[in-house]
Amino acid sequence: MRLQTNCKDCNKKISFYTWKTDRIEFSMEKGKTIELICKSCGLKEKYHLNNLKAIPSKISLIVGLGIFLIGTPLIIYLTWNLIFESLNIYLISSLIGIIGILKYSPSLDNFTSKIS
């Protein structure tokens, strides 16, 4: 995830990346304050964890949407004969759609809801 704050001296944005997915993991590794260096003015200052803001990742959104758009038709294609052998096509089709929605929609909001 990408974290961002403003420099205390020049008020420019300071951003950095971390593999931690929530504040608890991040604070366990780095502590309550983190020392950052502003790239524009060079000020080295400590920032409290509450001053950091998580920026949603567009890469995870694109990957999740891609998996949904490729995975759902692939599941329908692979189970096409099974669907038509069954008499209740509407039930099976709606189950495939519901499974796709339940499987991939939480992953799209996972990063923003944990941090905010």
Task: Tell me what the structure shows.
There is one protein chain. By secondary structure, the chain is of the alpha+beta class. It has four helices and five strands, in the order ββαβββααα. The strands form two sheets. A three-stranded antiparallel beta sheet has the order 2-1-5, with no helix packed on it. It has a two-stranded antiparallel ribbon with strand order 3-4. The radius of gyration is 22 Å and the shape is rod-shaped.
Shape: rod-shaped
List the quaternary state of the chains. single chain
- Give the overall average pLDDT: 79
Counted up, domains total: 2
The H/E string reads EEHEEEHHH
Q: What level of helicity do the residues show? A: 40-55%
* Total number of beta strands: 5
Determine Rg (CA atoms, Å): 22 Å
What structural class should be given to the helix and strand makeup? alpha+beta
List the strand order in the largest sheet.
2-1-5
Largest sheet entry: 3 strands, antiparallel
Uncertain spans: none
* Total number of helices: 4
User: What distance lies between the first and last C-alpha atoms, to the nearest angstrom?
Assistant: 12 Å
Task: Estimate what percentage of residues fall within beta strands.
Answer: 15-25%
